[in-house]
Design brief:
It is found in: Cell membrane. By secondary structure, the protein is an alpha/beta fold. It contains 20 helices and 12 strands. It folds into 2 domains: about 25-335, ABC transporter transmembrane region fold (Up-down Bundle), CATH 1.20.1560; about 380-405 and about 425-590, P-loop containing nucleotide triphosphate hydrolases (Rossmann fold), CATH 3.40.50.
Length: about 600
């Protein structure tokens, strides 16, 4: 059962691809997440700052010890200063552990918000957007990318923040000891700045490419797994293997690119760590010889700069994760720019009646020419209309436009005078529901799968819906409506899953039902029984059936014949047969009467 609409246009980098947020959008989204938990974030900052301040006591007190010993101080003074070093280290440990605890709680809450927001945005995507982007991309964003972004919030982000606070405090301490030594130390760190800048200029695009490569690989693998029977039947195994290997090679190439960036960054950083320490010891020795600074000050400054390597090392080692996480967050946040349907009718109007009008509709997919070429059609409330025609005539495309999944390039599709694509999801489901050959059995019980269509339905109503579509197998289920479906539970074969989808239609109770070969997976006897059951249940409602069996067209009030994206014939079954046109050729061919169509070619199937 499919029901969705078109929203504002997305701006993906490639037609059909889901958008990726830019740097400004990522920063704005991150700030918004922080504002949702401001108190916890501020408390985390405060404890990190206190932990960093406690960590400064060690080198400073060690310098005092050196000066005390040089000046002839006693053992008691040295012991007191040593106890101060121990107390500072203990305070830093406790404060840092509590800060990390606060950071983890903040990260988990924020990750939960990201996940909930992603699910809401994914569910708001029109089916056409998901189909064109591919399920692999959406799956990769909802699993790998969300998990990577969560790791940044829970682990990487707090680690980098704590290290940054410590680095700032350490540099401030060196400047307080002696401004000249502080300036010397900062100048010695310029190599790190240049190496990091070189890396950051290239890292974001490299990690975005890596994420896109993973999505493409996931799409190929998912399509191959879901279509395994088709692959075997059409002997496409070698081609699918070749496609998979090509995507794997693309993933490896993307990962090699990010590995190269890291292999340049980290050695440059390791060399740069020693430069400020050596420079301060050299300059400090000269200044001490001149009597400008004490030996304890030189030692404390050198220790501070040596200590600086730890937070800088944390920051720089995590830069790779920050870039990877930032690219993942950009992909997750990109769903905010994807088209989505309005929560209310954008026209400000509600349908007046259930009459469906199609006026001069033209439509083309992203690749290829027009599929529909000026289709006009009027469907009366309560009418049963069958749409027939050869494969590729545009029948399924028309059904998608009637259901609001796609929007015509030109022309209009309205229900009750309101464009179908402007209806909110809830309102659309009351008006039009599309049922195709494709079906999905959700993880959960039979009851869970049915309540999707009607949350307040009783067990009696659920069982009546199953009975209405001929799902007699449901009576024999081991736990009835509580039977678990899917992996690890009861598995439904194609026909049973299709009947489950049709039962949802009965429960949804729409004014108009579009059946796009909805019983194609059923055997002829079961399909006929199901169609008759649906006809009884849906009597008085509008039913548009994309017919693959001409008996369906025979039972309809009117038949629309499509060919090459146009409606070429329209009328009751008897009139079209008497007209001796394309429909008559189809009808006689279906009954085994050899006959050529008026167009001079063999008649296609319905």
């Amino acid at each position: 059962m499919t029901s969705s609409r078109r929203g504002r246009a997305a701006v993906p980098s490639v037609p059909g691809q889901l958008p990726v947020a830019d740097r400004h959008q990522v920063r704005r989204a991150a700030v918004h997440l922080i504002r949702q938990d401001t108190g916890a974030f501020a408390t985390m900052i405060a404890f990190n700052a206190l932990a960093a301040a406690a960590g400064l006591t060690g080198p400073w007190l060690l310098g005092r010890i050196i000066n005390t010993v040089r000046d002839g101080g006693g053992v008691d003074a040295v012991d007191r200063l040593a106890l101060g070093i121990l107390a500072g280290a203990l305070a830093q440990l406790l404060l840092a552990r509590h800060a990390r605890y606060l950071a983890h709680r903040f990260g988990e809450r924020t990750l939960a918000r990201i996940r909930e927001q992603f699910v809401d945005r994914a569910l708001a995507l029109p089916a056409s957007v998901v189909e064109r982007a591919g399920a692999g991309d959406l799956t990769a964003r909802g699993t790998t990318d969300v998990a990577t972004a969560g790791q940044m919030l829970r682990d990487t982000g707090p680690d980098v923040f704590v290290a940054a606070v410590q680095a700032v405090f350490i540099l401030a301490a060196v400047f307080l000891l002696d401004p000249l030594l502080g300036a010397c130390g900062v100048l010695g760190l310029t190599g790190i700045w240049f190496a990091t800048r070189w890396y950051l200029r290239r890292a974001r695009s490299a990690y975005l490419d890596q994420g896109a490569a993973h999505s493409a690989l996931a799409e190929v693998l998912a399509a191959t797994a879901s279509g395994a029977r088709t692959v075997d039947a059409l002997r496409l195994r070698e081609r699918r293997i070749a496609d998979s290997e090509a995507e794997i090679e693309r993933c490896v190439a993307a990962q090699d690119r990010t590995l190269f960036l890291r292999s340049v960054l980290f050695p440059s950083i390791d060399i740069s760590y020693a430069i400020p320490v050596v420079a301060v010891l050299f300059l400090g020795g000269v200044l001490h010889h001149q009597g400008s600074v004490s030996l304890g000050t030189v030692v404390a400054a050198a220790l501070y700069l040596q200590q600086l390597s730890q937070p800088l090392d944390t920051i720089l080692q995590q830069v790779e994760r920050v870039q990877s996480s930032g690219a993942s967050f950009a992909r997750v946040e990109g769903l905010a720019a994807a088209p989505k349907g309005p929560s209310e009718p954008s026209s400000g109007s509600t349908p007046e009646g259930d009459r469906i009008e199609v006026r001069e509709v033209r439509f083309a997919y992203d690749t290829g020419g027009d599929v529909l070429r000026g289709v006009s059609l009027s469907v009366r409330p309560g009418e049963r209309l069958a749409v027939v025609g050869p494969s590729g005539a545009g029948k399924s495309t028309l059904s998608r436009l009637l259901a609001g999944i796609d929007t015509p390039d030109t022309g209009t599709v309205t229900v009750g005078g309101v464009p179908i694509a402007d209806l909110s999801p809830g309102r659309l489901r009351q008006q039009v529901v599309l049922v195709t050959q494709e079906h999905h059995v959700f993880l959960g019980t039979v009851r869970d799968n049915l309540l999707i269509a009607a949350e307040s339905a009783t067990d009696a109503e659920l069982e009546a819906a199953l009975t209405a579509v001929g799902a007699d197998w449901s009576v024999a289920l081991p736990a009835g409506l509580d039977t678990e479906l899917g992996p690890g539970g009861h598995r439904l074969h194609g026909a049973q899953a299709q009947q489950l989808a049709l039962a949802r239609v009965v429960l949804a109770d729409p004014h108009t039902v579009i059946l796009d070969e909805a019983t194609a997976l059923l055997d002829p006897t079961t399909a006929r029984h199901t169609e008759r059951a649906l006809a009884a249940v849906l009597r008085g409602r509008t039913v548009i059936a994309i017919a693959h069996r001409l008996q369906t067209a025979h039972d309809a009030d009117r038949v629309a014949v499509m060919r090459d994206g146009r409606v070429t014939e329209l009328g009751p079954h008897e009139e079209l047969v008497e007209a001796d046109g394309a429909y008559a050729a189809l009808w006689h061919s279906w009954h085994g009467e050899p006959r050529r169509s008026p167009h001079g070619d063999e008649p296609g199937g319905a």
